[in-house]
Amino acid sequence: MDRAAAAGGRLAGYAAISDIPDRGGDIVRRGAFGAGAGAGIPLLWQHGADRPVGRLLRAEEDRRGLRILAQFAAGSRGAAEAAALVRGGALTGLSFGYRTRKARRDRVRGLRELLSVELVEVSLVTFPMQPLARVVGLFEEEERENA
After folding, report:
1. C-beta of residue 133 within 8 angstroms of C-beta of residue 14
2. pTM of the entire structure?
3. Adjacent-strand bridge partners of 70
4. Residues with Cβ within 8 Å of residue 48, at least 6 apart in sequence
């Protein structure tokens, strides 16, 4: 079992990038997540509701996008596999599942602007819709505490 997952290790990254169109023609506008992005939201494997690998400890918008801190589920084989792939550089994408609260069409550019969304889940993915949504750090508990 991967050490990071076995110890309840953590990962940090960006699940969404603000104001840059994704491959599907959506653009998440700054402020779309509001103040209530929050903690406790599941961290999934490839958007599989039946494949949770952890949970978010924090999800906050900053100037770049939706910054997350997640904890792997200690003792989970799925979490161990995900952590090993992230550590090896084979799995670096992040994505998010959401419910649209408010959106509008930019008919000139052919985009859908997401103005307000409810965050439902964040997933580790192989191919993120937003190519810039990535894991930026993976660490074990003791490394984080000493940092």
Report:
1. yes
2. 0.88
3. 11, 56
4. 123
Contacts of 27 (CB under 8 A, 6+ apart): 19, 20, 21, 106, 111, 112, 113, 114
- Mean of the pLDDT values across residues 45-66? 96
Q: For residue range 137-146, list pLDDT tens digits in order.
A: 998 764 444 4
Q: Which of 24, 32, 14 is nearest to 112 (CA)?
A: 24
Total number of domains constituting the chain: 1
**Tokens representing 132?**
């810039």
Distance from C-alpha of 44 to C-alpha of 96, rounded to nearest angstrom: 9
How far is residue 27 from each of residues 3, 68, 144, measured CA to CA in Å? 36, 19, 33
**Residue 102 belongs to domain spanning:** 3-146
CATH number of the domain to which 125 belongs: 3.20.16.10
**C-alpha separations of 131 from 20, 31, 94, 134, 135 in Å:** 10, 20, 9, 8, 11
Spatial CB neighbours of 116, under 8 Å, sequence gap ≥ 6: 32, 34, 100, 101, 102, 103
